[in-house]
Amino acid sequence: MRAKSELTDITDNRVLTGRTLALIVLSLICVQVLIAWSLGRLGLIGPDSDDGMRLLQIRDFLAGQNWFDVSQNRMGLDGVPMHWSRLVDAPIIALTWIFGLFVSSETALILAYSLWPPITLVLVFFGLLTAAERFGGRAARPFAVLLLVLILAIHYRFAPGAIDHHNVQLGLLALSLGAALDPAMRARSYAASGAALAASVATGAEVYLFVCIFCAFFAANWALTGSKARRGTIAFGVSFSGVLAASFFATVAPTSYSVNYCDALSRITVLAGGAGGLGLAAIAAGASGVRLPLRLAMITILGAICLCLLKIEAPQCLSNPLSDLPEIVQTLWLADVKEARPLISSDAESLAGAFYRIGVAVLALCVVGAALWRGPRTPENWRSSGLMLALLLTSVALTFLQIRFFIFAHLFAFAPLAAWVGALFVGSRQKQRGGVGYIAALAASIPFMWSIPSAALTSTQSVEMDKASCHDPKVAATLNSLATGRVLASPDDTPFLLRETDHSALDGNYHRNAKGIEAALTIFTASPETALASLHAARVDYVFVCMATASTKVPSYSPDGLLAELIAHRPPAYLIPVYADDIQAKVYRVQSADEDVVLDAAPQLRGRLNDAPSTR
């Protein structure tokens, strides 16, 4: 894909010096902060419910919870042992301690979670810039910088308060990709790739399949290249297994060393990953001089050993862990989680958003295919294009299954597209034509341009505003004025409830809380006449209903159920209203089992509820 030409001024790397790039990155961080300030969101936690839950996890640690304990004891029926990694918490905690030397602890935490997300874009910027240069040559550099500026300046994953783990995950994968594409196969590059890859494994389980592709790439590269890749392959294997083991001992409690988890870093991850990494390093060190068929046989045997370890130690991890969820949880909760939906589903938002989610990835696949078909028949081109092709195909396939993987498709599409734009620009200058085809290619490489059909058909701004009105300080103040108890609410409301009140929450968007989700759905789908017994059985004291976050599937599944009646503003007599803002947010107290009569302390409030217009 490298464009062989005499570069013009715009592609002269002397213009984009290290100091210039540092200023650009600093400017991107400032732009993210300024945008948040202009929108009135600076200092607020991100809108994603996972941002709020991450903040709660950090607060729990700062309040004295053990480093190895990431349980949410106020969620579910009896607490939920979360699958999240402390590695993502560590930099925010460190920044909080540093800022705490100068300001109050609460202000220090706000500064930390506001500044950390924009800082993480540094990883993505330099990782993808390196990947683009190594894939497309010097001509790709200025267009890679331009694309990164256009994308990262407004990317929601790097906005202040967006402390979910995905920005860190993207940064680590970007660094790993850039290092893996080193044409010289230097040991330091391959070691950096292995370290970043292992850290991404410790950060979250979504990347496991991509990590397997990277590992297969390094193994196949050694098998096909032999002694030229010897030092780099050894460095990768040692680095990958070493950082994986270090992350395990740094974040997993000693009491859990023997437990295998499929959704988090655990014993089986270290066993399989360590065996693969150290095994690859060992055979590269001792067998790089043997013939190609024997090298291929050795990495095949190594892969089989890793697979057997997984099959013997944790066979459950070879299947979808979500398939074991109770049927009602799969039907009414999992199917209602937007990020877990397939790319093409029946709702208009999904159909319109499909262009945005895979447009640039499909375009990048075409570019990589052309690089393989028409590009130079060199090991370097086959190596880089082969890796990009595998990553893009996998990310697009996963996006068709669950739309949350589209962010990885965008990540892996970047380098080929920047290289493509650079090649078009240099080609037009070589031919001394005033062609502007590269400008159209540049526009097509920006994910936002593919969102125009989505923007025309959908709008999420009003939903966010409604959700914000439900999570109002007045709601929190009302709940805090009540005796501490358990709240039944939508899973999207759980982080707000746990963060802003002392109450516990039955529901929550986390698969390890399957029992709590099942109990909540059982109550919401039950008829109002029978739901009271289930409320008492689940020890629910309060019911919180937010029209913007209430499930859309439960009322359709059970049109005469409790949630459908609450959405229609027809609460049963045993739910005593304590708060209402006319339409959006409602708080009810559940009549206790020993109350003979309903103690309606707010008849005027009940009248407001009954007179409110139906939203069904």
Describe this structure in words.
Helix content is 60%, strand content 4%. By secondary structure, it is mainly alpha-helical. The strands form 2 sheets. Strands 4-3-5-7-6 form a 5-stranded mixed β-sheet. Strands 1-2 form a two-stranded antiparallel ribbon. It starts with 17 loop residues before the first helix and ends in a 5-residue tail after the last helix.
Keywords:
616 residues; 7 strands; 5-stranded mixed β-sheet; disordered N terminus; single chain; disordered C terminus
Largest sheet: 5 strands, mixed
Shape: globular
Beta strand %? under 5%
Secondary structure tally, helices: 25
Overview in brief:
The protein has 25 helices and 7 strands. With 616 residues, the chain is mainly α.
What does the secondary structure layout of this molecule look like, with pairings?
Blueprint lengths: L17 H21 L10 H14 L8 E2 L7 E2 L4 H14 L5 H32 L3 H13 L13 H15 L6 H17 L4 H18 L4 H22 L15 H21 L4 H22 L13 H6 L15 H27 L4 H23 L4 H25 L6 H8 L7 H6 L3 H10 L2 H8 L5 E3 L5 H7 L3 E2 L8 H12 L2 H10 L4 E5 L6 H5 L4 H6 L7 E6 L4 E6 L12 H9 L5
Parallel strand pairs: 3-4, 3-5
Antiparallel strand pairs: 1-2, 5-7, 6-7
Helix pairs in contact: 1-4, 2-20, 3-4, 4-5, 4-6, 4-15, 5-15, 6-7, 7-9, 8-11, 8-14, 9-10, 10-11, 13-14, 13-15, 14-15, 15-16, 21-22
